[in-house]
Amino acid sequence: LSVLCLGDCQLHTSCGIQKCTTDFVSLTSHLNAALEDFDLEFCKALRAYSVCTYRNSKVCRGNLVYHSAVLGIGDLMTQRNCTKDGPTSSTNPEMAHDPCNYSGHTEVREHRGGGKPPLPTYLFCGLFGDPHLRTFKDHFQTCKVEGAWPLIDNNYLSVQVTNVPVVPGSSATATKKITIIFKSYQDCTDQKVYQAMTDDLPAAFVDGTTSGGDGNTRSLRIVEKVSGKYIEMHARYIGTTVYIRQLGHYLTLAIRMPQELVMAYEESQDLQLCVNGCPSSERIDQSGHLPLPVMGKLLPWGAAAHPLSGYTLETATTKCHEKMLVKDIYFYSCVFDLLTTGDANFTAAAHSAMQDVEALHPSKEHWHIFPRSGGGGVGRDGRFFVSLGFLCLIFVAYL
To answer: What residue stretches are annotated with the Repulsive guidance molecule N-terminal domain (predicted)?
Structure first.
């Protein structure tokens, strides 16, 4: 904060503004603006900061740093829509950490010796379409994975998806069922199981509840955004957020989780698509090439004269471009899905998947994965090669 000073800016030794500011920084240094409870915790810290400055108003009345801090607090409270009345954070940062709030208790556990703790590292994984997988390592793959497969299986969370064939004669599949198990954790939550299927996207766990743990802490809860079409799950105790959508007849999933928890699994749990990607035998993309089933084009193995999906390369490109202006891997996945299935709902799935990336992926500079020519790869996994003008792809055979 530019209005604050942690150094000896003024020689008013009786003024406690430096202590107020130091406490505020300690209370907020672990917060992450991308997390769902950021505004709540930030406002609590601001109120505590304001109370501290008020207590020092008399001894600090001639201190410019004090007056700058008061103005800064007011500006920040306005920006964050904080009310003046409400709960405040403890003035002892060590006591302020909620054991059922991952962003707090982890740093306290690892940095009791003092000093500013590092911010936790978060990872993103997403699955959508026919199906396209973005792993925690930002590798992008297109896979078959028919039947039930584990996306995540660690000491805190299990996520399993069930995929079914999309169209006869194609090896592409899409997700029709998602099962999530939030494993019991201390006093924060009992084990909770969630299950979604096509045309059945509930806003509750299988036991009928919508939250886990103490009702006051809300350490785990489900939020329905669009009835039957879009839900969010917020697990504060493990710093994890999950989005599930139904678009057309199929489901999509996006998840953000702390790296240290992602990697907390046993050797027997190594089959996790989000961690290690799809087995090579399950990959539709061949050596990194995304094989678009383009009919009417002269491919190395030959092709039918008319597209079975009802889309040509040009019409599929136009359709995808309506929602996706940036020609990144999500755009090309949209084209792939339209040419494979003819189902326009996959356009919305690719678009929503990109929106989920923007909402959950921790690194903005890595939101988009762009195709590169000449063997550079797409996200170190896939390659598109350029030719033929406005879409410019060299294709390999689909089957």
So the answer is: 15-84
